């Protein structure tokens, strides 16, 4: 390129010299006469050379511009040629995927895997050229050939990266059924093939339209089995992929019933404590608790609330605290019978501590749970209070006097006054009981946090405020 520019400059100089010679108005035959009449001949020459010099610069600029345009056109031609070559390569790969020869198909699948790995345009082009059906066909055409199956599985995985159209096309081509059939084959499955299948379920389950198809296909037990298989040499990556795939599937409500059919809930609650998987487990439980059968399954697990309350004390993991408090908040709000079990698990003191030391979101959720428990406790005190009154006072006491008997309206008013007095006494008892309980727990927490004894958090008063709201805004 530099040589071409220098050549253009040189050509521009020669053309300028030629232009100067042709435009000279002085006769060529009489240079001496001009010299005798005008000794100072340099001045006219200088005047005549000025426009020639300007014209020379213009020609030089034009030569450079022409050279740049030629370079751009050459670059465009090169880019077009490369695109044509890339398209021809993709066409050749798809043709090789459709041949009968096993070795050639495996090589084509490996090449498709590499081409689709980081090139989004290649993913779309390969799919449009028809690469997906033959790749899916390789899953059951080459039973026992681990290399061919792995090449096909990872080619499909890469084709679906960031491309929802391809993910839908892979499922429609029957990949889910064929992968499950491959898992259920009587021959021992290579762990690398199993890992590739789990990775494909993770990618395909990210698309909402695929979630019900995969969930009802029987893939959930496979993912649970992968999660429980600690001896799998593929290690933690396969477990993480299985957890993330189960999370994607648990987003769709109809898949919760399939999750209930497995022993996933007890396993996940028992696995809490492993920080590598705890946050994702809590995310799945957060989706499960959104359905009545999910809440029932969690309540049925022994020590479920004890485990979840223990998570609230993980001050070094705010994400786990927020997710555990969400699960407990939904269960406290929806399941009246679970609140007593939560209190027995020591949740009140853990929640009060969370309102002091937790994240903003965890503090809000802890406050909502305490409000639910406070309302529940008030109902229990009210029932006990009414029961004691019923044992000592007979019902006909209202309006039993002769004046009441003569004036039924007066007796009815007296009954209302008694009921109002009873309700006011109940409210006072409830309020005093709740305040005493909260204050005692707060003193313990302040002492544990090494805070001044007269410390009172700004939002503590809101915990004892009268409220009947049961909404869950957080």
From TrEMBL:
The keyword Repeat applies. Residues 33-55 are annotated as: Disordered. The keyword Nucleotidyltransferase does not apply. Residues 35-45 have a biased composition (Basic and acidic residues). InterPro entries: ARM-like (IPR011989), ARM-type_fold (IPR016024), ARM_PUB (IPR058678), Armadillo (IPR000225). Gene3D superfamilies: Leucine-rich Repeat Variant. It comes from the Eukaryota. Residues 93-363 form the U-box domain. ARM repeats lie at residues 218-250. Keywords: Repeat. This is U-box domain-containing protein.
């Amino acid at each position: 390129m530099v040589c071409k520019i220098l050549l253009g400059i040189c050509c521009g100089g020669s053309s300028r010299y030629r232009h100067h010679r042709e435009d000279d108005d002085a006769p060529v035959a009489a240079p001496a006469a001009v010299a005798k009449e005008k000794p100072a001949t340099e001045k006219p020459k200088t005047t005549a050379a000025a426009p020639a010099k300007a014209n020379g610069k213009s020609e030089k600029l034009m030569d450079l511009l022409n050279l740049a345009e030629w370079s751009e056109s050459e670059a465009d031609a090169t880019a077009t040629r490369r695109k044509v070559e890339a398209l021809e390569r993709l066409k050749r790969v798809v043709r090789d995927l459709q041949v009968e020869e096993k070795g050639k198909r495996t090589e084509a699948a490996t090449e498709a895997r590499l081409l689709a790995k980081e090139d989004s345009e290649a993913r779309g082009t390969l799919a449009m050229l028809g690469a997906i059906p033959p790749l899916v066909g390789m899953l059951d055409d080459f039973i026992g050939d681990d290399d061919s199956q792995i090449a096909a599985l990872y080619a499909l995985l890469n084709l679906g990266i960031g491309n929802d159209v391809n993910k839908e096309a892979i499922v429609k081509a029957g990949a889910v059924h064929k992968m499950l059939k491959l898992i259920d084959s009587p021959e021992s499955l290579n762990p690398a093939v199993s890992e590739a299948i789990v990775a494909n379920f993770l990618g395909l389950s990210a698309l909402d339209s695929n979630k019900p198809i995969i969930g009802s296909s029987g893939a959930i037990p496979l993912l649970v089995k992968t999660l429980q298989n600690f001896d799998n040499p593929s290690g933690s990556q396969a477990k993480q992929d299985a957890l993330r795939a189960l999370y994607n599937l648990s987003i769709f409500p109809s898949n919760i019933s399939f999750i209930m059919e497995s022993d996933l809930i007890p396993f996940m609650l028992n696995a809490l404590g492993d920080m590598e998987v705890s946050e994702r487990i809590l995310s799945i439980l957060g989706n499960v608790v959104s359905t009545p059968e999910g809440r029932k399954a969690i309540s049925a697990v022994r020590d479920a609330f004890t485990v979840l309350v223990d998570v609230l004390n993980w001050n070094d993991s705010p994400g786990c605290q927020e997710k555990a408090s969400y699960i407990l908040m939904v269960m406290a709000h929806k399941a009246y019978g679970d609140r007593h079990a939560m209190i027995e698990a020591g949740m009140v003191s853990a929640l009060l501590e969370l309102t002091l030391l937790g994240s903003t979101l965890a503090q809000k959720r802890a406050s909502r749970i305490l409000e639910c428990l406070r309302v529940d406790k008030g109902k229990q005190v009210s029932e006990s209070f009414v029961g004691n009154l019923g044992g000592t006072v007979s019902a006909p006491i209202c309006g039993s006097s002769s004046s009441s008997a003569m004036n039924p309206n007066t007796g009815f008013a007296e009954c209302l006054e008694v009921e109002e007095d009873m309700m006011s006494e109940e409210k006072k008892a409830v309020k005093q009981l709740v305040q005493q309980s909260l204050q005692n727990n707060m003193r313990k927490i302040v002492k544990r946090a090494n805070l001044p004894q007269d410390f009172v958090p700004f939002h503590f008063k809101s915990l004892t405020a009268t409220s009947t709201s049961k909404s869950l805004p957080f």
